[in-house]
Amino acid sequence: MKFTHSLRATLCIALLAAGIQQASADSDPQTIVFGVAPGPYGDMVNQAIKPELTKKGYKVVVREFSDYVQPNLALANGSIDANLFQHTLYLEKFAADKNLKITKLITVPTASMGFYSNKIKSLDELKKGDVVTLSNDATNLARGLRFLQSLGLITIKPDIDATKASEKDIVENPRGLVFKPLEAAQLPRTLDSVTASLVNGNFAFAAGLKLSSAIKLETLDENLKNVIAVRTADLDKPFVKDTKAIVESPAYAAVIDQPGSMFSQFQKPEWMQATTPAPAQ
């Protein structure tokens, strides 16, 4: 009989402990890990997204990567839960090339690529043999070439898909410029040794460059504006829906539009332009 009472007591204690442990686990906040590249998008998460997710009971961690490769690999393998560093064209090509099940959640305001120089003040000063560095990944290389074409500096073959253009597709280069593709993160560091560089917005900010200091800024197509990406399998999960709702909220817009904010210089996605109230007459 004593053994039976002892066994019952042991079972009760075990069940009570398990219940307390489960209650503690249930009360712990879900952690969402955002991957970003160097630049302003970690600030965007910390200032415009994290506070609202925290109010909803989540714990948010921002993890910075040094390149454009690891954030997507980490997302696909579950090391992080979302990332914010890339535009739609890059995401779609990377996911297809690597066979990754990751997808766009929502487009966000984006810092455009700029034509920067420490040696000249205008495009008119460019001369034959001047070296211009630009990103060497296929998507952003083509983007840079289209930007150069929009500036009247080169002409790309008209019968190709311009989103896949490479240096081989340049048919006119009237100024005799020399183009040197490099890893995107290195581009700001080349400004003291070359004539000019096409620097992506995030790396420009990371290097202390101001958008206003660029000789020219690109006008972003919608598919060149940055996105929050998540695993495709997570699209219907509460944390993903909550993240999207926050980006669409007035609280997020207020941070972006705050006078003097770095984000106020960014080009907004079409959905955000459509929801921006018209100025009072």
UniProtKB/TrEMBL annotation:
Query: Keywords for this entry?
Result: Lipoprotein, Membrane, Palmitate, Signal
User: What cellular component GO annotations does this protein have?
Assistant: membrane
Signal peptide (from-to): 1-25
InterPro entries reported for this sequence: Lipoprotein_NlpA
Checking Gene3D superfamilies in the record gives: Periplasmic binding protein-like II
- The question of whether Lipoprotein is a record keyword is answered with yes
| Keyword hit for Lipoprotein | yes
Q: What SUPFAM superfamilies does its record include?
A: Periplasmic binding protein-like II
Chief localisation class: membrane
One Pfam family per UniProt: Lipoprotein_9
Q: Where in the cell is it found?
A: Membrane
Membrane topology type: Lipid-anchor
Q: Where does the sequence pass through the membrane?
A: none
As for family, the record states:
Belongs to the NlpA lipoprotein family.
| PANTHER family linked | D-METHIONINE-BINDING LIPOPROTEIN METQ (PTHR30429), METHIONINE-BINDING LIPOPROTEIN METQ (PTHR30429:SF0)
Protein name listed in UniProt: Metal ABC transporter substrate-binding protein
User: Whose protein is this, by species?
Assistant: Brenneria nigrifluens DSM 30175 = ATCC 13028
